[in-house]
UniProtKB/TrEMBL annotation:
Keyword Oxidoreductase carried by entry: yes
Keyword Magnesium: no
GO molecular function: heme binding; iron ion binding; monooxygenase activity; oxidoreductase activity, acting on paired donors, with incorporation or reduction of molecular oxygen
Name by which UniProt lists this protein: Putative cytochrome P450 120
Binding-site list for heme: 400
Organism: Enhygromyxa salina
PROSITE patterns: CYTOCHROME_P450
EC number: 1.14.-.-
Protein family (similarity comment): Belongs to the cytochrome P450 family.
Names of the cofactor(s): heme
Keywords for this protein: Heme, Iron, Metal-binding, Monooxygenase, Oxidoreductase
Any Pfam family the entry gives: p450
Top-level enzyme category: oxidoreductase
Classification via InterPro entries: Cyt_P450, Cyt_P450_CS, Cyt_P450_E_grp-I, Cyt_P450_sf, Cytochrome_P450_monoxygenase
Length: 467
């Protein structure tokens, strides 16, 4: 092992202009990374508008040092603020550092753990079943849209406890309008601070503010209504956050609540929907894997009703989900800003630059994974994912708050749909990777067709039936 150089320096990287590098990052997210990895290896320097100079890592030792560094020195909120302060709000967990981040995380962690997960599991299963009930044999549809409908319904229900379906759908439409805006080419401009100016409804920032306003209104109205009606007996996240107190006994202000709910809405469903979409595209072309998922489901079901509390018994499905998150990561990775010169593995990087653990490159680095391009869930059977090599949810003190929630949702939706519906993906369909809001999703939405009537909830499909 070589030693880090004594003076801070940047590793080499692509020499193209910042503009060209930014365009490639937006338009060809995978290829640009693969090309740079092939040329420069597991640490290289890129220059991207909105992010400045960024050292892209797929080296395990460097990633370990990044995730275990002092969060006052290697920060996240400060760099997020440059991109998202006006978008997500100054109080958003994503935009905070140090003690304010810690305090907010303590408030936001309990809603996503423990007994509550069972309640969410029931909501997830219901949303999946409701989606299937709408399908007709022979119908063709984009599975990405179904996944968005399901995950949006779930997040709205668990965040706001919107019980009434109609109201949930109207709020959902406002959220989708907002997110759709982020799949337009002009949205790439929003990361540039100088472009964050309201120059009227035709300017990107002006448009963003106008599609966000109705969403703000709905969130503010929900907060006011809940404060007025009280939180007694309620199990939604909004009520939990209204009741939460920090160490000094202080409740959250309306502004804080608004920023947090907005953040959770944005990061809490599109990511899971995109992961599930890649999942269906992968699994529907692999009847052998679907047969194994179904056989396991039947076996576990033989021991009694498979309610969401028993999903943990589906160990093969667990391995499938881990492998999906490895092969098709839906975020670029975990980025930090270095406030001081920092040693990361063999690197000694200067202050002021960003360092990012690249999910795509780390998950496909042949030095870390046997046959990295192969989809092979068995690699996770009976084994924990290797530390600092499997990072779909980032790592360290900023690791994704919703990781357990998202994993549960993926398992429930995959298992409900694969065990009760025979779907066919259009033969030869090969999706491109497209940026949509913060996620890398399958362009075209993955068209599928329902081949036979959806099976009853208590009569799962035969393992050998068509996928
Ligand atoms: C498959 C689905 C998901 C993926 C792949 C994903 C991925 C990520 C990643 C990579 C990060 C950055 C971690 C880091 O910097 O180390 C993150 C942060 C975060 N995620 Fe997720 N996420 C998913 C679902 C969710 C859900 C369902 C929620 C909540 C309902 C959520 C809430 C958050 C929050 C609040 C943060 C910021 C944490 C902080 O800064 O302390 N995510 N997520």
């Amino acid at each position: 092992m070589s030693h880090p150089p004594s003076t801070p320096q940047l590793p080499p990287g692509p020499r193209a202009s910042r503009l060209v590098q930014t365009w490639r990052f937006v338009a060809r997210p995978r290829r640009s990374l693969d090309d740079s990895f092939a040329r420069y290896g597991d640490a290289f320097t890129a220059r991207i508008f909105g992010m400045g100079t960024i050292v892209v890592l797929s080296n395990r030792a460097a990633i370990r040092d990044l995730f275990t560094a002092d969060p006052e020195v290697v920060v996240t909120g400060e760099s997020n603020r440059r991109l998202f302060e006006d978008l997500l709000g100054a109080n958003s967990l994503l935009n905070l550092d140090g003690s304010r981040h810690l305090r907010k995380r303590k408030l936001l962690t309990p809603p996503f753990h423990g007994q509550r997960m069972h309640v969410y599991g029931v909501a997830m299963r219901e949303a999946a079943r409701r989606a299937m009930a709408r399908w007709r044999v022979g119908q063709r549809f984009a599975i990405a849209q179904t996944m968005r409908d399901i995950t949006l319904e779930v997040i709205l229900r668990v965040i706001f406890g919107v019980d009434e379906l109609d109201q949930r759908e109207r709020t959902g439409a406002v959220v989708l309008d907002f997110l759709d805006f982020f799949s337009r080419p002009e949205a790439a401009m929003l990361g540039i601070r100088a472009a964050q100016l309201d120059l009227g409804p035709r300017s990107p920032w002006g448009r963003m503010l106008r599609v966000r306003a109705p969403l703000d209104e709905r969130i503010n109205a929900a907060i006011a209504a809940r404060r007025a009606a009280g939180t007694e007996g309620r199990e939604d996240i909004l009520s939990m956050l209204i009741d939460a107190r920090d160490e000094d006994g202080q409740p959250m202000s309306d502004a804080e609540l608004r920023d947090d709910l907005f953040t959770l809405l944005l990061v809490g469903h599109e990511t899971t929907a995109a992961s599930l979409t890649w999942g269906f595209w992968t699994l529907l072309r692999r009847p052998d894997l679907v047969a194994k998922i179904r056989a396991e489901y039947r076996e576990v079901m033989a021991g009694g009703p498979l309610d969401p509390g028993r999903v943990g018994e589906l160990v093969y499905l667990d391995a499938v989900v881990k492998e999906l998150l490895r092969v098709h990561p839906v975020t670029d990775g975990a980025a930090r800003l270095l406030m001081q010169p920092t040693r990361l593995g063999d690197l000694h990087l200067p202050a002021g630059v960003m360092a990012a653990a690249s999910t795509w490159l780390t998950h496909h680095n042949p030095a870390l994974w046997d046959q990295p391009r192969r989809f092979w869930p068995e690699r996770f059977l009976g084994k924990k994912p290797p530390a600092y090599a499997w990072l779909p949810f980032g790592g360290g003190p900023r690791r994704c708050v919703g990781a357990a929630f998202a994993t549960l949702e993926m398992k429930i939706v995959l298992s409900e749909l694969l065990n009760h519906a025979s779907l066919r993906v259009e033969p030869g369909y090969q999706p491109k990777v497209a940026r949509r809001a913060i996620t890398l999703s399958a362009a075209g939405g993955v068209p599928v067709e329902l081949l036979a009537p959806v099976a009853a909830a208590d009569r799962p499909l035969d393992p050998e039936a068509s996928p």
